[in-house]
Inverse folding.
């Protein structure tokens, strides 16, 4: 009757807590009302013929609407982006109108607005008002004028990640560039990263002062893994708004030697008529979390301690091997290896009085490639 050598099956569950890091899912804006948004470029602005305190994108906004009650458009929020000379405002949608609505922005000031295309600058302070019209150009509602200080409302452009490199097996070195801010502003940035196949991001904050070129090293990563990385920054004289996340960049940590020994079982046959016996070794593949790279093969080293010249090293890509032994005691050790090195050995001693049997080899941790054995 055939005897089956059953491999140990081990399940390892590891929960890692990373101090100072905050796991978060994709950003989601939750509002009780849906939000509308309009962006105005400085080049779109034009003056009103009979009102030099007003700048508009649509000439019909120059016409006063005394019959419309202001304040129906609510919860206005605006930011200014200096690089593209634009202002973006968002607000709650009108819920009491079922048709299509067109929204426009117009800008006003108690001071004369001499050149409308040039009013978007860090020294400017003016009012912005939202007008809601039906598809028949009838004004449905106006917001209250919202005072906008462009210095305080400045929102940086998204950073640009220039490089990601692996510093160690557990870290990535990230470099990026940011806007050139005025006023000797302090710039702060935050970084998020995730394994490419993961759903959740991990976010870290760089509280140091960042100049035009930011640098940060992400620690405590898994070896031989691919990560997505993005950066967001705040700065300028207001430091109120964070930039959009940068375009995601990919980075990979390097391969390292396998961290766990193999689970190996053995079967020894009795001596045959030629004074030799067969040793059968079989092992279980390492868990992917322990390989830290692509397993290239397995190395078996066997030697009689009393006849070291008879020692042999065999490499195989199979999950087991047959060895022919003479009637001597043997030291046997087995390991897996990848491009970075070998795993800790699994070791056993085969005595010359050992009868036909099945069994498991002992584990000896800490012995790795280059420590007391031949290299492959």
């Amino acid at each position: 009757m055939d005897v089956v050598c059953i491999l140990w099956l081990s399940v390892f569950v590891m929960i890692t807590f990373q101090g100072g890091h905050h796991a978060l899912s994709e950003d989601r804006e939750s509002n009780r009302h849906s939000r509308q948004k309009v962006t105005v470029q400085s080049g779109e602005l034009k003056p009103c013929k009979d009102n030099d305190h007003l700048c508009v994108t649509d000439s019909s906004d120059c016409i006063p609407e005394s019959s419309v009650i202001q304040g129906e458009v609510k919860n206005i929020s605006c930011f200014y982006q200096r690089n593209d000379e634009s202002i973006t405002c968002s607000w709650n949608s009108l819920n009491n109108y079922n048709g299509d609505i067109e929204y426009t922005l117009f800008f006003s000031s108690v001071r004369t607005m001499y050149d409308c295309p040039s009013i978007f600058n860090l020294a400017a302070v003016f009012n912005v008002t939202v007008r809601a019209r039906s598809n028949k150009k009838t004004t449905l509602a106006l917001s209250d004028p919202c005072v906008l200080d462009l210095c305080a409302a400045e929102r940086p452009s998204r950073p640009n990640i220039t490089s990601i490199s692996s510093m160690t097996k557990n870290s990535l070195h990230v470099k990026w560039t940011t806007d050139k801010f005025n006023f000797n502003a302090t710039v702060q940035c935050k970084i998020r990263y995730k394994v490419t196949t993961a759903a959740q991001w991990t976010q870290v904050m760089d509280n140091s002062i960042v100049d035009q070129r930011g640098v940060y090293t992400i620690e405590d990563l898994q070896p031989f893994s691919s990560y997505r990385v993005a950066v967001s920054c705040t700065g300028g004289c207001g430091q109120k708004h964070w930039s959009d996340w940068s375009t995601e960049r990919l980075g990979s940590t390097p391969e390292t030697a396998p961290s766990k020994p193999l689970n190996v079982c053995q079967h020894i046959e009795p001596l045959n008529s030629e004074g030799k016996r067969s040793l059968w070794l079989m092992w279980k593949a390492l868990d992917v979390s322990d390989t830290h790279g692509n397993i290239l093969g397995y190395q078996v080293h066997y030697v009689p301690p009393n006849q070291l010249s008879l020692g042999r090293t065999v490499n195989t890509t199979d999950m087991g091997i047959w060895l022919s032994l003479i009637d001597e005691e043997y030291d046997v050790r087995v390991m897996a290896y990848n491009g970075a090195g070998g795993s800790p050995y699994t070791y056993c001693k085969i005595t010359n009085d050992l009868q036909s049997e099945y069994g498991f080899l002992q584990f000896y941790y800490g012995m790795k490639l280059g420590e007391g054995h031949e290299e492959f």
The CA atoms of residues 10 and 263 lie 9 Å apart. The two ends are 38 Å apart (CA to CA). Residues 1-32, 356-376 have pLDDT under 50 and may be disordered.
